[in-house]
């Protein structure tokens, strides 16, 4: 269990200070990274309600949330105050999770842009300097792969842009082979197989579905599966 520091009243005192915009303005002016400080209009700071920290963790953390104009748009700065003497190994992930939760809560228009939430940790533990990475991507067993997955556009299979010739090849060859493999491995129940075949008939464009079924049945080793296909 993580050890709580003895000066928790000091932490509460610090949070009370940060609940005053003038004090927070000075704090952020000093401690925000220069690139972020340069786009923030600290004269627009406004204290917001924050419900990020779970009730069970409030002895270990407290937080303050401020809204601020960032290049003319609404942004937020979420200050998380760590009350424990031992650094949380998952702190960077916790901060990312809190930031995403705040984005979800603060998103007023589902079709609008996501609100930018800047996480900032206030640390006063025993180990100096802060001993852990502040990148949540370093929490993964394969951090470089995680960076590629979560820092680049997600993979997309957009069938609407696949050429018709390729789709026809997939339907006649790849789909058939994959379907045979899955049925042969008995990964599907009879009802699932029936649903799949029904879907293919309804959504397909062939005028000879029986030819497809016969070809599929001829490739299957299971007698039961062949009987199911024969019924079609």
TrEMBL record:
One Pfam family recorded for the sequence: Transposase_31
Similarity remark: Belongs to the Rpn/YhgA-like nuclease family.
Transposase (putative) YhgA-like domain boundaries: 8-201
Molecular function GO labels: double-stranded DNA endonuclease activity
GO terms of biological process kind: DNA recombination
InterPro entries in the cross-refs: Rpn/YhgA-like_nuclease (IPR051699), RpnA (IPR010106), Transposase_31 (IPR006842)
Highest rank taxon of the organism: Bacteria
Protein name in the entry: Rpn family recombination-promoting nuclease/putative transposase
